[in-house]
Backbone:
């Protein structure tokens, strides 16, 4: 009910919506509406009310509210089914559980904080309460497992485009899964998948975006490589608006992938790359070696040139790519 009332207030925008209309649309009593308006106010929503005119939403707190995210996204599927936790171990774990129980394509899990936020290869993800977006989307692409890595790049492209749109910052992609602002990591992406012999059953795409941390909010050992949108722009951003923009970008790019193939994603990542042209350190099972990142292949794999001038393809997931000078 809270969600439905909030949605009506958001849809009314700058106009008043009468208590009577809310009652009619939702089939509830005036007293019930009043009770929810009161609870929303207690949670920091500023709602004007005037006799005979009705209610109007004036301002919102920076809570993770499903109605705000859905409204900001304006999507068909991505970020429409939503679960929010105040605290959980990892949104990827919660989303995997939901996926196994039949969560639809685009289902989204968010948390104000994570007690066991996960990075790749057993690493952790620092999840300062209320200061970042910690979210995981369930995707159900109708294709085989070998094609799944493109979804990580697609998500990185969606985050990069959303940050450029909402925060007006350049947000290039460190192939294949980090988004960088001014040379530091503002977002990391962790994809996990369940597949059978033929097809992907689901992919859980975990996205962590640093929004409102100050530098002292990061543990000392990552201060040289981590940053937040607040640190880089000096501005605060509503996390729900940002989550909505990421969902919108994701849906647009996902639809395009399904109808027209990988071309647009690879092209976006090529044009917004923090990796191409850089000296990189490839960390493989056989050892480490230096190379220069020169291009992305048509399928999104990284093409590097080794010190002997030979070109080769790097498949994401098989190696770790590091810039020589840092992240
Ligand atoms: P990654 O392995 O590329 O990056 C993890 C590394 O990044 C850590 O070892 C640390 O050095 C650094 N790091 C840790 N926390 C942060 C941070 N907040 N900002 C910048 N750098 C950091 C990248 O893994 C994938 C991260 C995905 C996180 C999301 S959050 C929602 C979802 N749930 C979950 O458990 N993980 C994903």
Residues:
């Amino acid at each position: 009910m809270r969600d439905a009332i909030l949605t009506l207030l958001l849809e009314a925008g700058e106009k008043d919506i009468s208590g009577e209309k809310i009652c009619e649309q939702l089939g509830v009593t005036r007293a019930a509406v009043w009770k929810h308006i009161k609870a929303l106010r207690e949670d920091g929503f500023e709602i004007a009310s005037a006799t005979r005119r009705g209610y109007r939403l004036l301002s919102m707190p920076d809570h993770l509210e499903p109605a705000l995210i859905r409204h900001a996204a304006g999507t068909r599927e991505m970020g429409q089914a939503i679960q929010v936790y105040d605290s959980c171990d990892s949104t990827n774990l919660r989303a995997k559980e939901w996926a196994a129980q039949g969560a639809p394509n685009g289902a989204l899990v968010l948390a104000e904080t994570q007690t066991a936020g996960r990075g790749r290869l057993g690493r952790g993800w620092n999840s300062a309460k209320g200061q970042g977006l910690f979210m995981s989307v369930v995707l159900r692409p109708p294709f085989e497992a070998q094609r799944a890595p493109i979804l990580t790049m697609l998500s990185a492209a969606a985050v990069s485009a959303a940050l450029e749109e909402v925060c007006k910052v350049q947000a290039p992609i460190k192939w294949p899964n980090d988004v960088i602002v001014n040379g530091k990591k503002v977002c990391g992406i962790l994809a996990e998948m369940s597949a059978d012999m033929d097809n992907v059953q689901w992919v859980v795409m975990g996205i962590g975006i640093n929004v409102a941390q100050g530098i002292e909010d990061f543990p000392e050992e990552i201060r040289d490589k981590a940053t937040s949108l607040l640190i880089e722009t000096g501005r605060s951003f509503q996390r729900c608006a940002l989550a909505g923009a990421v969902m919108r970008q994701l849906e647009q790019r996902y639809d395009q992938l399904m109808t027209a193939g990988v071309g647009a994603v690879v092209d976006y990542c090529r044009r917004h790359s923090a990796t191409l042209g850089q000296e990189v350190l490839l960390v493989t099972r056989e050892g480490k070696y230096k190379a220069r990142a020169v291009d992305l292949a048509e399928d999104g794999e990284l093409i590097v040139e080794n010190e002997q001038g030979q070109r080769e393809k790097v498949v994401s997931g098989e190696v770790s790519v590091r810039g020589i000078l840092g992240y």
